[in-house]
Amino acid sequence: MIVSGSFGWDDLGTWRSLETIYPEDPQGNINVGSAEFLDAANCVAYAEDMPVAAIGVKDLVIAVSKEGALICHKDRVREVRQIVDRLKNRVNPDIFREYDIRGLAKTELTPPVIFRVGQAFGRLMGTKGLQRALIGGDIRLSTPVIRENLIKGLTSVGINVVDMGTVTTPLFYFGLQQLDADGGIMITGSHNPKDYNGLKLALGKTTIYGSEIQKIRSLVEEGPSAAAASRPKGRSH
């Protein structure tokens, strides 16, 4: 099996429905989109976004989109959900930059990843005796889901959250100085294209960078300790 990127085919029954909707060629292949078959038999190819060639293979399911590709034997399609779940939970180390956490909102800053980042930042706050985090977010379409999962992660390890809602980055920094907060996270893609988003993190009144960002990465990869997971949940308002 070869898997790249992320895809939306976790409704596995859809594969079987293609066999009843689309006609087969003389070798039993089904082509949805722009696939080409040569000495191939009993394959299903879904490739609407780019051309795909299947040569000398049989009994495969092939799905290709702008966001990724999947190839597996027909008998193994029920296992695709495991791969989808694994991809959603995978943390790309490249999102941990020098001054922020930043990546593609749909495929890198997924809800499970953001939840774990929230937990990690909350644990780092806890080691410094900090308990109250300020959260703000920009107007990008991906920001509300990121905010929701960030807050879940923070509160799960005992951090109380003050949610500023939709604000500009300067207003978030103003809030850090003026409100009763021990730190916080601003959700913003800054100057990056619309498919991206990011997190600017602050401990106390100043943002963190460099080695402190890498501490967040290490805590994300490590996962929450039993002590952190057993703390009373924080509140959000």
Summarize this structure as a short list of keywords or feature phrases.
disordered N terminus, elongated, 6-stranded mixed sheet, alpha/beta, 5-stranded mixed sheet, 237 residues
Q: Which SSEs are present, and which pair or pack?
A:
Elements: E1 2-5, H1 13-21, E2 30-38, E3 44-55, E4 60-65, E5 68-73, H2 80-89, E6 101-104, H3 111-127, E7 132-137, H4 143-156, E8 160-166, H5 169-178, E9 183-187, E10 196-203, E11 206-207, H6 211-222, H7 226-229
Parallel strand pairs: 2-3, 3-4, 7-8, 7-9
Antiparallel strand pairs: 1-5, 4-5, 6-10, 9-10, 10-11
Question: Can you characterise this structure?
Answer:
By secondary structure, this protein is of the alpha/beta class. The chain has seven helices and eleven strands. The strands form two sheets. Strands 6, 7, 8, 9, 10 and 11 form a six-stranded mixed sheet that branches. A five-stranded mixed sheet has the order 1-5-4-3-2. The longest helix has 17 residues, at 111-127. The N and C termini lie far apart (46 Å).
Brief write-up:
By secondary structure, the chain is an alpha/beta fold.
Rounded radius of gyration (Å): 22 Å
Mean pLDDT: 86
End-to-end separation: 46 Å
Report the order of strands and helices. EHEEEEHEHEHEHEEEHH
Number of helices, where a helix is a run of at least 4 consecutive DSSP H or I residues = 7
By DSSP, the count of extended strands is 11
Structural class: alpha/beta
Tell me roughly what share of residues is in helical segments: 25-40%
